Amino acid sequence: MAGRRAGVADLRGPGFLNPPVRLSPSDLKAALQREAHALGFDAIGFTTPDATSEAGKHFLEFIASGGHGDMDWLAASPERRVDPRGLWPDVRSVIMLGVNYGPDDDPLDILARRSRGAISVYAQGDDYHDLIKKRLKSLARWLVAITGDEVKVFVDTAAVMEKPLAQAAHLGWQGKHTNLVSREFGSWLFLGAIYTTLELPRDAAELDHCGSCRACLDICPTAAFPAPYKLDARRCISYLTIENKGPIPREFRKAIGNRIYGCDDCLAVCPWNKFAQAGREQKLAARDALRAPALAELTRLDDAAFRALFTKSPVKRIGRDRFLRNVLIAIGNSGEASLAGEARRLLDDASPLVRGAAVWALSQLIARDAFAALASRADGEPDVTVQQEWRAAAAS
To answer: Which residues, listed in sequence order, are joined to residue 168 by a DSSP beta bridge?
Structure first.
């Protein structure tokens, strides 16, 4: 079929029975909504590829400011990100979809349990990229079977501005914390996109409903928001514990607390979360082992055990060494002298990243004279960054 004509479907079934009946664009849109909900999507909206021009300007300003830190992939080929047609010139409509992942309890409660690690809600289950992409592909296949038009699917792995497109498609609005906020699901929506050569009726863009609220800005432990709607990723705990490949900057270590992968503070405090109950039946399940893991147990992970624990999890992507770096920062913040032995054992770890974090953690948990007695270990340390950790800890 021609890419801009209405779809063809059989109204006696889910689009695959005979005889085929031509659907108007509005009927096809309604059929897409039904199929999306049947596949487990909680939200669906429609927009056009020219809907993100203003957001594209803000993105380019963000890159120019260096606020993306070491996330070089964000700055690569920006023309492909600021306009969907830069990624695929033939796209005529963008279908945005959301899946609710609202938690059962308050994600901030674990921050008081200092001997336990706080893993961001989205990473407590299977990798959402895999889960959402399967659903997107199913919906895309359904659409292709009906219309014959071309499609492409994306889940946070290509140059797609999901949040501005989601706002243009009426799924929610970008809040002051720069994440999408939904009136139905609060700050807890995974997003995916289907680009298509079809022309479908677009939805009205969602309005901003943040008002005078500053809860997400004020709760940020590292003051990562220089202004409402602006994020300096270099100060964000999610960036520091996930994207950052080197040592955690000393100025942020105390503020990280026991957050060992990501940070939910600005999401969890959003007042719109009170409506997130609406999609609970569709939420993605968290694993019990990742809800509040004991820091002491996590320090025992070798590479094989790390991979086994985090199989199918997004945490697996940062690798064992970066993860143990985060765990050791949390141990240093725990105030638990009983964890000092775990930190001391990791002074001999094969990874300089882990050894350096172990030095800092130990310096926070044992008496100054006891730490000074260990300082001679720095003389035999082959890594410059770990040597710097010994000197900085001894001087503090």
So the answer is: none
